[in-house]
Specification:
Number of strands: 11
Helix content: under 10%
CATH topology: Porin
Length: 238
Amino acid sequence: MIKSILFIGAFFFSFYSLSQLITSQSQTKSKISFDTSTYIYFDTDIISSFRSLAPNEAHLNTPLGTRSDESPLVCSSFTLGISIPLNPFLKVNSGLSFIQNGEAYNWSSSINDSTYSYNTKYSYIGLPISLSTAYGKKLKLHISAGIIPGIYSSYRQQIDWTDADGSEYDEEIKIQNDLNFFNLAAQGSLGLAYYFKAFAVRISFVYRQQFNNTYKEFEDYIHKSNGMGGRLTLTYFL
């Protein structure tokens, strides 16, 4: 995972450097600078969400069973916020987020038509707080890091299965009483933003990691959601 993040970071930096070199001829009147503008922004995240899962040894130390075979699930999140300069180099960003984490499970029999699968999504309303900096000409390298305190919003598990004869069934579960009300995660992003006269467009790689347990203190497992993926940001200058 660390190698992947370093590779993506090196890719962004190389692309940024090449872009600045190519456009330098046509942007001689534009100076390299930090972004000091105030703007509102809208983030759309498409994340491959995965989780760490371990028995709660302080409780019953329950084995993971088939949950050890769960796989990542693609989830979307959205943020509306404002970015305000702190000094000539740094900006503080905050807003309101709708955040989704999740995981998936798929099983199929090797002897008949039996299958069993589910997608589980945990939704939160978050208040992201981060520091960021952006440096360049019209094309700027953008880096940010911060935390996301959130409160539990909803739970949804979609289950689909077939029996040995291939008959299909499904069930949706929306009530789960063992979830922690509060969620705290760290978030970082690295991307490139192109600045127009009144707005900017940014594409970023984003990584998110949860600090606390998704479940309550005396439940069977220690569950923490993580995710990485892409982000599209639209900003409007104030």
